[in-house]
Structures are given as C-alpha cells and as structure tokens.
Amino acid sequence: MDRYGRATGPAPRRDTTRSVIVRDGSLARKVKELEGDRCQICDTALRYLNRPYSQAAHIRGLGRPHHGPDELRNLLCLCANCHVLFDGLEIYVDPDGLVRDTRGGREPRPLRRDPGHPLDEAHIAYHRSLCNLNARKPAVG
Ligand SMILES: [Zn+2]
User: Coiled-coil annotation: which residues (predicted)?
Assistant: First the structure.
C-alpha cells in the first residue's frame, strides 16, 4: 500500500484446482464464422484489438442444473451485451423466432439466422421457460 492506502504492484495470486466443463472451441468458431461475427439479436459487429469479436452463447447452459449439450444447435453468436441479457434471462426467443424482453419493455425483433446454422427449438423453449419463471410480475395495486 502507498501512503494513500492504494494497492501497489500486481494483484495477489493464489493456486487453485477447479473442475471445468470442456467446451469444443471449434463449435464456437463455427457459429461465429456462420454468423459473420455479427450479433444475431442486435446485429452489432464488435471489434477488439483490430479483429472481429463475438461470443458463442449456449442457449441451454452447459452447467448444472441445465446440462445443455455443447453442439451447434445449442449455440448463438452474440455480442457481449446481448449475451449477458440472454444468460441473465432478460431476453428470450419466442415461438415465432422474435427476440422479446422478459418484461415486455422493448420492440420484438427477429433472431437473425444464417441458413446453414441449425437451431434446436427444444433448447430455445427451455431457455424461454426459465425466462417465464424469472419474469417480474407487475406490482399489484
Ligand atoms: Zn447484440
């Protein structure tokens, strides 16, 4: 610490052992390539360090309790913002393929899909069911 109480030097480190899910990096690259590194929800094309940047998002989460499969049909290509909103159950894809706000606060817009990118409606329905559980009910009175 310096005389103002600020940390100096690198952050401290500790060793850990963790069990992590092994994701197939080639699938993530494939969905990004199919969708041209462009967000399927908001159409944003981010760049990071002079390269296209997008994220591969699992529709049905891989971890507990969802146990979704690591397969192309369970992946979307999203920007960082939409990935957070999707994982946070703030947005979902309705049965007509429209992306909606869990609280109904924004205009629905179609999920863009490359014809070569298959999606499994069962995974989309699973995610939607979580959003319905998470939906905030309007205050009564
Ligand atoms: Zn987006």
Answer: none
